[in-house]
Design brief:
By secondary structure, this protein is mainly alpha-helical. The chain has one domain (2-75). It has helices at residues 2-16, 24-46, 60-75. The protein is flat.
């Protein structure tokens, strides 16, 4: 499973290189979702990839914080 996590991170990185090709509104949405999914992947890794022990999720405040920072970063 660790290899699958590495692959996912590689896909996130290669996808983010394409963000400048998107219009501003689309770039904000894609950047925000990529950030949220990357954080969920981080949570899965912290659990030693045990996704069967319970649902992996982010708290609402953490999601909001990520949404703000990712959206602001996509505007640059």
């Amino acid at each position: 499973m660790a290899r699958q996590g590495d692959r996912a991170r590689e896909y996130f990185a290669s996808g983010e290189r394409l963000l400048p090709l998107l219009d501003r509104r689309s770039r904000m949405c894609v950047s925000m979702l990529a950030g949220l999914y990357r954080e969920i992947l981080g949570e899965i890794e912290q659990r030693d990839h045990d996704v069967f022990a319970g649902r992996v999720s982010l708290s609402a405040p953490r999601k909001l914080g990520l949404m703000v920072t990712r959206t602001a970063g996509a505007l640059r």
